[in-house]
Amino acid sequence: MNRIGRREEKRERDEDLFKTIDSTLDSSTSLAVIQVMRKLNIESILGAIASGKEAKVYPAKTRDGKYIALKIYYTSTASHKRAIRRYVSLDRRVEVRFSSTKEMIYAWARKELGNLQKMFEAGVRVPKPFLLIKNVLAMEFVGDGISKAPLLVDLEEVTQELYDEIIRQIEVMVTKAQLIHGDLSEFNVMVKDELPYIIDVGQAIPVWAENSLSLLERDINNINRFFEERGIDVVPVKELLNRLQLSS
Fold first, then answer.
1. Active-site annotation holder among 183, 193, 219, 233
2. 22 has catalytic annotation
3. Torsional class of 200: left (φ above 0), alpha (ψ -120 to 50), beta (otherwise)
4. Is 200 annotated in the active site?
5. Spatial CA neighbour of 59 closest among 37, 38, 76, 32
6. Candidate list 22, 154, 200, 219, residue with the active-site label
7. What is the pTM of this model?
8. Which of the residues 29, 34, 90, 235 has an alpha carbon 20 to 30 A from that of 104?
9. 3-state SS assignment for residue 236
């Protein structure tokens, strides 16, 4: 096969690999998807399993039969731009001046990657991050085969042990990773094999950041409310803050 034929075959193969992804992706994002797939040896990408204000998440199958998750951040319809700017402004680790929405989203994706890396290395149970190219983040797929693990909110029953483990994860996040999630609730905790995985950590900020304590209190109150409504004994916020050597 000549060079032109090989190039055409490769182009068709690349198009097939992400044909299930939203066709409205801009060219820069499409190129980033292709680069991620090549680097991680991805064979196919399946339909979105989660869609939120900032991104869609797709399961991807590698050529050796493993599944990873691709989180693709929106760059042209960032309806939550004001919230991003607010969280970024609280975190001195991130440059706050952006010349375009796309640059801001790239910075937000880098922030989530950095938070995931820091939490993972500290022992917080989060999806293991693999790779980020522009606005495409590849990370561990939390689930069984192609089936994603349920969110905490979707569980029919919860246990005291699950609550205690989520609180332990918060403690490790604060004391070891020195980060506060900032938006923790039953909607961004996945549960696999009765163990919680913390997700969506882009807005997480350092413990020393402005308003960090109030955000931590809100995180704990959200988790406590969810479990208390289901008859689980919860740790009072003040008690947990004292345990973490923090006070309001």
1. 183
2. no
3. left
4. yes
5. 37
6. 200
7. 0.84
8. 34
9. coil
